[in-house]
Write a structure and sequence with these properties.
This protein has two domains: 182 residues, P-loop containing nucleotide triphosphate hydrolases (Rossmann fold, 3-Layer(aba) Sandwich), CATH 3.40.50.300; 45 residues, no CATH class. Helices cover 42% and strands 21% of the residues. The chain has twelve helices and ten strands. The longest helix has 21 residues. The termini are far apart. Bound molecules: adenosine-5'-triphosphate and magnesium ion.
Length: 291
């Protein structure tokens, strides 16, 4: 079976851009895999998201080299509207996504376009409203809700379509900590239940690290690092060089590992880190006891 995403020697230059936004990118993502993408401003993260969703080259002029395949098929070769059944994209700017008069219509719009029957639309609407906590807002016009609520609507509209590949470009930038945590719980659930492929572009790594199998660092349009999450964060110098913030707990243990005081995998969060540090303390006190 073809990979969910297969990007080969892919470069993209916007018609009015300053050189190539993406340069000779190679990236294979299997169905069900979760890949976190980080990189400084202007690194090409959004361009990568657009390229997977076909907005580039569909909605933008520019020069493309190489190939971007979704489920084994080049993005431009999908008949109109068909790629959107495979790939859902949640933008960081939710406003750009709204077209309907109420939140409910916004959610239903995409489902009607999929040609689903009314009972199926009803079932998905209830499911997604429950999942994202939007029930009380369904009859509101999208312009009367807060930025964070808009972001939840944008996410819900895409989730309702149940794409096999979900690309999220800073989808929680306007959410409060609790709502953000909930979104990542939902993504974790989707992965488990529907084997959704996830591409997570996020500056805040706290929630990405526990979920991502792999991390990709984009810098100046190139993939500077692509590694399983635990070994990705061992490359502290490279990450710092690009001005990226590594979660504190991960950084502490990564330093212990780099200095030869710890040999296991890096933790995915504070809880794991606590266990690792306890392990290191126990090992060193046993050593001292033996002297
Ligand atoms: N529509 C466009 N036309 C011309 N150049 C563009 C366009 N959109 C983006 N670029 C350029 O392409 C490069 C990559 O931009 P992109 O938006 O993909 O970066 P990013 O990693 O998403 O940044 P951020 O963290 O700020 O969201 C930048 O140099 C940017 O100026
Ligand atoms: Mg961006």
């Amino acid at each position: 079976m073809a990979n969910a995403i297969e990007i080969t020697n892919y470069s993209w230059a916007y018609a009015h851009g300053n050189g190539k936004a993406l340069k000779a990118v190679n990236l294979s993502v299997e169905q069900g895999e979760c890949v976190g993408v980080i990189g400084p401003n202007g690194a090409g993260k959004t361009t990568l998201a657009y390229s997977i969703d076909g907005l580039v080259p569909g909605q933008y002029h520019g020069i493309k080299e190489g190939t971007v395949q979704i489920q084994g098929r080049e993005v431009e070769d999908y008949p109109k509207g068909m790629l959107q059944r495979e790939v859902g994209l949640v933008f960081s700017d939710p406003e750009a996504q709204f077209t309907a008069m109420t939140v409910e219509d916004e959610l239903v719009f995409g489902l009607e376009n999929l040609g689903l029957d009314i009972p199926e639309i009803r079932e998905r609407l209830d499911w997604v409203a429950e999942l994202t906590g939007l029930g009380p807002l369904l009859q509101k016009p999208p312009y009367e809700i807060s930025g964070g609520q808009k972001q939840r609507v944008a996410l819900a509209a895409v989730l309702a379509m149940r794409p096999r590949v979900l690309v999220l470009d800073e989808p929680t930038s306007m959410l409060d900590p609790l709502s953000r945590k909930r979104v990542f719980e939902v993504l974790g659930q989707l992965r488990k239940v529907q084997n959704t492929t996830l591409i997570l572009i996020e500056h805040g790594l706290e929630h990405v690290v526990p979920l991502a199998d792999r991390m990709v660092l984009l810098a100046e349009g190139e993939i500077a690092l692509d590694a399983p999450t635990p070994s990705f964060f061992e490359k502290l110098d490279l990450l710092h060089h690009h001005g990226l913030h590594v979660p504190g707990a991960v950084e502490v243990v990564s330093r212990l590992k780099n200095s030869g005081r710890y040999f296991g995998e890096l933790p995915r969060g504070v809880e794991d880190a606590r266990l690792v540090i306890q392990e290191i303390i126990d090992a060193s006190s046993t050593k001292q006891g033996a002297v």
